[in-house]
Amino acid sequence: MGRRLSGKVVIATHNSGKLVEMRDLLAPHGLVAVSAGELGLPEPEETGTTFLANARLKALAAATASGLPALADDSGLCVAALEGAPGIYSARWAGPGKDFAHAMERVEAALRERDAFTPADRGAWFISALTIGWPDGHTEDVEGRVDGTLVWPPRGEAGFGYDPMFLPDGFDRTFGEMSRLEKHGLPPHGLGLSHRARAFLRLAEVCLAD
To answer: Rounded to two decimals, what is the model's pTM?
Structure first.
């Protein structure tokens, strides 16, 4: 069992999609969640070379600046045929305007350059690293992963990021076609399907379990 989390927590993100998901995940635990954006906290430069390093960096920056525990996520899409890219650079592939339609087109173009057209050639996975950081520098870290296949053209208007082109294994709808409950709802109402939900279930065991 790690350090317990209670009271108010900062969600260290300026990404509105992530904020919605993380608030949904925290809600059953009675935590008061405020975002880094609402507090006017700056976004730290993500200089880590792994998802976990970047999550830790963001959590500790928010905790230090706010004086509160902070929950940070660093996540991305990894494509087997692209040697794991875009990986930790998933957001950067969308450019400064955060244009994920363009980012998905970049991924598709890269797959076509490698003649990756069949499902067997288009395997991919989402990774989510979650870190809770405290102002004293303590951290609790977990990771979650979900495997799937990339489809083209993208399908669905729900979700965010690369969701419309990601078809999770065992399902016939992309993350972009799933409701919030279907994608990241936790048991008993949901399947805990998404990478972020799977990471959160582990984090709850460490820091939120009664």
So the answer is: 0.90
Of 177, 76, 89, the C-alpha closest to 124 is 76
Alpha-carbon distance of 36 to 63, in angstroms, equals: 10
Give CA–CA dist 130/73, Å, rounded.
5
C-alpha span between 80 and 23 (Å, rounded): 31
Q: Which residues are catalytic?
A: 74
User: Cα separation of 101 and 90, whole Å?
Assistant: 12
Token digits for 81?
């045929």
Q: How would CATH label the architecture of 8-208?
A: Alpha-Beta Complex (3.90)
* H-only helix segments in 3-161: 16-26, 51-66, 100-113
Do the beta carbons of residue 17 and residue 180 sit within 8 Å? no
Task: Note down pLDDT in tens along the chain; length 210 residues.
Answer: 678 888 889 999 888 888 888 888 888 888 888 999 899 998 898 899 999 999 999 999 999 999 999 999 999 999 999 999 999 999 999 999 999 999 999 999 999 999 999 999 999 999 999 999 999 999 999 999 999 999 999 999 998 999 999 999 999 999 999 998 899 887 777 888 999 999 989 998 888 855
> In whole angstroms, what is the distance from residue 166 CA to residue 123 CA?
10
